[in-house]
Amino acid sequence: MRRLGILLSGRGSNFEAIAASIAEKRLDAEIAVVVSNRPEARGLERARELGLTAVCVPSKGVERQEYDRRVVEVLREHNVELVCLAGFMRLLSGYFIREFPMRILNIHPSLLPSFPGLDAQHQALDYGVKVSGCTVHFVDENLDSGPILIQAVAPVLDGDTADTLSARILKEEHRIYTEAIRLVLAGGWKLEGRRVTQPDLPPSRG
Ligand code: GRF
Question: Any idea what the CATH number is for the domain that residue 90 is in?
């Protein structure tokens, strides 16, 4: 299960971090296709520059189920086994989720379940939390709500703006997305309720 399908809508820095991990042999996988719902997405252009297959499936004016059907078709054409949402600004339908059960990951710039949805870094600043971070989780039909694979913490500093906090969190995003993909591809993880555990790993001491 090594063929990744990346879905993005914008800048694509998480996609680039995954591509770099693969190029530097820190992740044993290949990017089968990059799909964007927005033709102007910088990530799409970057994918082409990297010589990857990059496809735009425009979402404007297309009904959700029909849109998802089109994207699933592209993913199937490229024999995608694991779908990685990387700044893909759409909620997936039940149809899409059922086509790739426990095979869709997302990254979100907060410690879920705090601050789901848009502008998570703004939400964190407005709330006044002292730590935030990011989460890689399996995707279900609800917004930013599936079982959590990995989280990383980033401190919120006095004087932070949404931009400075986002940059600090983004560094952690780039690190943990690769880790989470590695964990899923390695297998041996189990879902107990909402908890993703790795029973095969020796218990940590301490
Ligand atoms: C990231 O902050 C990610 O957590 C969120 O959308 C942003 C995408 O950034 N889901 P990029 O396009 O990967 O640079």
Answer: 3.40.50.170
What is the bridge-based pairing of β-strands 190-192 and 131-138?
Answer: unpaired
Which residue puts its alpha carbon closest to atom 8 of ligand 1? 87
Let me know if residue 66 belongs to a domain.
Answer: yes
Nearest CA to ligand 1 atom 12: 12
What is the number of helices (H) and of strands (E) in the chain?
Answer: 6, 9
- Given a contact cutoff of 8 angstroms between Cβ atoms, the answer to whether 18 and 177 are in contact is yes
Q: Are 12 and 86 a contacting pair, CB within 8 Å?
A: yes
The answer to whether the pTM exceeds 0.85 is yes
Number of domains composing the chain: 1
CA distances from 130 to 24, 41, 66, 124 (A): 34, 33, 42, 9
Does residue 70 belong to any structural domain of this protein? yes
The domain of 37 spans 3-197
Digit-coded pLDDT (tens) for 50-100? 999 999 999 999 999 999 999 999 999 999 999 999 999 999 999 999 999
The answer as to whether 88 is a domain residue is yes
Q: What is the distance in A from the centroid of ligand 1 to the CA of 145?
A: 16
Q: Does 206 reside within a domain?
A: no
Cα 109 to middle of ligand 1, angstroms? 7
